[in-house]
Amino acid sequence: MSLHAILRSRTILCAVPHAAKAAAVPATVLETHADATVHLDAASASLTDPAVIAIFK
Q: Which of 6, 33, 47, 49 has CB atoms 3.0–4.6 Å from 22's, for a disulfide?
């Protein structure tokens, strides 16, 4: 599924487990979506700017 198709979805639920995914956390793109939920564990959130994480709390 392309990013364009994902962003056209009514609701987006994104689960990002494991430290190997830390560099790929798509939160900055998803913050523009009206109904996006991102679930991170501590390891996958380790490289994400705390200000971006705060948007989703």
A: 47
Which sign does the torsion angle of CA 17, 46, 12, 9 carry? Answer: negative
Average pLDDT across each block of 10 residues of the chain; the chain has 57 residues. List them in order. Answer: 90 86 71 86 84 75
Residues 6 or more apart from 20 whose CB is under 8 A from it? none
The conformational region for residue 14 under phi > 0 = left, psi -120 to 50 = alpha, else beta, is: beta
